[in-house]
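Quick one, T. Sequence first:
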Amino acid sequence: MDFIYLLIACAFFALQFIFQKLFEKRTVGGLSVCLWNQIVCCIVGGTFLIVKAGGSLLFTPVTVPALIYALLYSASGMICSVATISAMGCGSVGSIGTYCLAGGMIVPFIYGIFALGEEAGLFKWLGILVLCASLVPSVMGKSGDSGKKTSVRFVVYSVIVFLTNGLVSVFSKMHQISPAAISEDGFMFLSAGIRFSAGLAIILALASVKRMRGEKEAYRNAFWNIARVPMTGKLFVLLFAVAGAFSVCNTLGNLFSLRCMVTMDASIQFPILSAVVIVLTALFGRMFFGEKITKGSAVSLIMSVAGIGLFMIP
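Structure tokens:
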């Protein structure tokens, strides 16, 4: 049953990239806009969790270790989300997906080996080397959707996505195996509350700075004028829906993934998750946005799957 849950998580994690790309294509970009996306995600995701749990989440007791892990998890997730949306403005969905999922596998794998004492043979380490090497061709040459050469900015964003998505997996694993862990729904709801509060505070702070510098409609611009075209009610609802759809996919993916973490080794779970999502993300990028699978991205995809396949060899 754990493997079925894992495959379901893969499908939702792959779909979330599509909604992030749709959001990026329709907004002006910048930190405030990315945080606006986070706030909507938290509202939708939190509401979803409350409905799913029948309102009992509002009274979930929180332990100090769970709060600490939720803070670390939330900070990593926020940085990863901002970097991912920013990267989509200058690169392909497939390349971003490769970095995101590679980080989600390599970083927790290393954590599992050195912190949890999980076993790793020669083939697993060879898989790490091949997977790391696969990251290079994915950002070489031209991007899959625009035909432009890959920018240094895209590489920097991709590396940030790699590291922070890996840390998201590490902190969630640390919580799940903690004796003071709370329920999966409770942990996700707590993290949503933290991200909402932090995102709102940062947006208001940035708007306040702009207001002091003379921008008359700084607060309105921060929450309303975020599209590339003049904002309308229908467009606002569309952007809210796109961000909300990402949140639902991400929440469901995390819930199914968290369910597997209790009994499945990180060194087994994350290779499977990464391989499936990397392939699906590249295919979705082609299907929904017409992103060409260039020679570099094809080589990267093949190397990624090969590297991940090495993890499956006993």
